[in-house]
Specification:
Two copies of one chain form a homodimer. Chain A has 343 residues and is an alpha/beta fold. Among the domains of chain A are: 1-48, lambda repressor-like DNA-binding domains (434 Repressor (Amino-terminal Domain)); 161-291 and 327-342, Response regulator (Rossmann fold), CATH 3.40.50. Chain A contains 13 helices and twelve strands. Chain A has helices spanning 6-13, 17-24, 32-44, 51-58, 74-89, 103-115, 133-138, 161-174, 191-206, 223-235, 248-260, 278-283, 294-309, and strands at 63-68, 93-98, 120-123, 142-145, 155-159, 181-185, 216-218, 242-245, 270-274, 288-291, 319-322, 325-327. Chain A has a six-stranded parallel beta sheet, with helices on both faces. The first copy, chain A, starts with 5 loop residues before the first helix and ends in a 16-residue tail after the last strand. Mean pLDDT of chain A is 92; it is low at 338-343. At the A-B interface, helix 4, helix 5, strand 2, helix 6 and helix 11 of A face helix 4, helix 5, strand 2, helix 6 and helix 11 of B. Chain A binds a DNA duplex (30 and 30 nucleotides) through residues 3, 5-7, 15-22, 25, 28-31, 34, 49-59.
DNA sequence: CTTCTCTTCGTAATCGATTTCAAATCATCG
DNA sequence: CGATGATTTGAAATCGATTACGAAGAGAAG
């Protein structure tokens, strides 16, 4: 832990620290022989550069932050892998921040990252935008992933939530003849939530079905929300025949509630949702889902971010929208093996 | 991105930067009134401290690194949550490094973290110890989690793999009468692997069964290893009646192979494994597992690490061993709801 | 040989905060 | 009132690397 510095190397060889810095940082004008000797002693003394000092001077930390709302959700895990893989391929580190869908935590992390001098952030925000204000003020490079934040204009990489929701809903109506479809959505402050409801609505309209607001509940993207609301509407008199869960976790809650009511899925309640449950689906292909390309989303977002960080002057804000893959399985009422609907 | 510094605040108030630093960094001797004025202007100028400069001087970055081998595995995800939660509770950030079970990647990350001046690391190593050598040389604080590395002595927090494997194997023998139990283990270089085989062996010996090495295969902790080997032994003449998969991913591979062979689990092949599949089990409680307290492991490891970083002089190396919870479900052949075996 | 250019290298400033040491201020008291 | 000790504050060094600027040396051209 003592720490060999460029001064030690310089003293050892009788040259100046400046020369050592130049030699080690690559291709400045340094005589070949000097460079060789410096590289040699650096290795011999077991020198490791101090990135803090380097970053302080260069005003670049080669570190980005990723703010996501739930590490236990495979969707975000895959986003994270995409971000991390891409970042490290370009020599960047990633600091992970897990907000648990709590805007307060998000705010704290944002401030912290500002102090830590990260070079940029990939953010899937659970707030309404206010939490990200400091980033805007400081002019910090940011790319939004999965969730847009209306207030600000930043690059973003998102899934086509409206389209996915439309296709799923349409499937329930067209193929299975359902007319009363409950929706358990995430918070209305989050873009994916609003868009999924919009997609649902478009499908209803297209098939001449009424939009009944009592069937639509906005809450949060967690299992217990799905459980709570499903418990509720499943015990009612005229329960809906189908349910569109806002994401995979909500869907799990719905399943649990149905089990407790002794209801079978899909016989008593058809169910479709967003985002696949990777491992679970490998073993028990059950949920009919709109599966988003999570890894790609993370990877693309990082690429956009690194372009900005790299100093490329990009005026306009870029918006990448990726189509989800619709995977028809059993929970909607289809037989396994049934033909996959084209997106 | 301009950056307000303590010099700006100092100039504004006609005091010295030193005083500003003292005032902002808490409770050094600064007159109350001065402190108030400084805090005020700091807020007014929207000052954010530069942690890089701070870390450079204090030789502490308030950042730790977590090296894990597979972020898609819920076990490690939970370890990660435990680490991150605990670290951030004490004001530390966590840099996540995902090695994909590749020792080369691990080596690269280790070097990088050394340069980044992290204050310490929580490591679940996929190597044989050589990759961690630089950490030892530099005297970097390290706590091993999940996997011990024989070569070095560091604090560690691990699960009782031997005991868990023993109990699972014993269950297969005692309750279900299996005599030929295949084992698909991870790499022998990884401690959990060797220990799980040892536990398996102890159970065999206790029940007077022969240890047949052709039933035991060591490979790696991934799905495709389970799939490949299971495909192999399931097509043989006298296939084993039961299988102990080294971890959850291997187990998934075994299931997939069994499905392709038209074999049913547990009727045609009983299966037990280590580490639960959180979400999958919520929906489809299927695997009989030794479930390790992953979150706790991460949290404890971080606590031990922070103690070291905090400068507490602890001579001896601490070893925390946590017992897994044995959850009996269907894959071993038990009926659901059957009584839980005591560890 | 002088002058000029080009390469190579050293001096010193710099990034922003912390900290040591000493100076300045203030209060207290004989 | 001056001495003594406690509080506050400032000047300057420091962490380790980068870099602007200029000097020294080598080689080329006249």
């Amino acid at each position: 832990m003592k720490g060999v510095t460029i001064y030690d190397i310089a003293k050892e060889l009788g040259v100046s620290p400046a020369t050592v810095s130049r030699a080690l940082s690559g291709s400045d004008k340094v005589k070949e022989e000097t460079r060789r000797k410096i590289a040699e002693t650096a290795k011999r003394l077991n020198y490791t550069p101090n990135y803090l000092a380097r970053s302080l001077k260069k005003k670049q930390s080669y570190t980005i932050a990723l703010i996501i709302s739930d590490v236990t959700n495979p969707f975000f895990t895959n986003v994270a892998r995409g971000v991390e893989d891409t970042a490290s391929r370009f020599g960047f580190n990633t600091i992970f921040c897990n907000t648990d869908e709590d805007p307060d935590k998000e705010r704290v992390y944002v401030d912290l990252m500002l102090k830590k001098m990260v070079d940029g952030l990939v953010v899937s925000s659970c707030g309404d935008g206010r939490t990200l204000l400091p980033l805007k003020e400081k002019g910090m490079p940011v790319v939004l992933v999965d969730r847009k934040v209306g207030k600000f204009h930043w690059d973003c990489v998102v899934g086509d939530s409206e389209g996915g929701a439309y296709t799923l809903t349409r499937h329930l109506i067209e193929v299975h003849g359902h007319k009363e479809i409950a929706v358990l959505a995430g918070p209305l402050t989050i873009s994916t939530s609003a868009e999924r409801i919009a997609g649902y609505k478009r499908a209803l309209i297209e098939f001449g079905l009424p939009f009944r607001s009592e069937l639509v509940t906005a809450g949060y993207y967690k299992e217990d929300f799905g459980y709570r609301i499903a418990k509720d509407f499943l015990s009612g008199e005229k329960r809906p025949q189908a349910c569109f869960a806002g994401n995979n976790f909500i869907a799990i809650g719905v399943v649990r509630a149905a089990q407790e009511h002794g209801l079978r899925i899909p016989e008593d309640l058809a169910l479709v949702t967003f985002d696949d449950l990777e491992l679970a689906s490998l073993l028990f292909p059950f949920f009919t889902v709109a599966k988003q390309p999570a890894y790609t989303m993370g990877s693309l977002a990082t690429q956009l971010l690194l372009e900005r960080i790299g100093g490329e002057k990009i005026k306009e804000n870029r918006e990448v929208v990726l189509k989800p893959e619709i995977i028809i399985r059993r929970s909607c009422g289809c037989e396994p093996g049934k033909q996959v609907l084209s997106g």
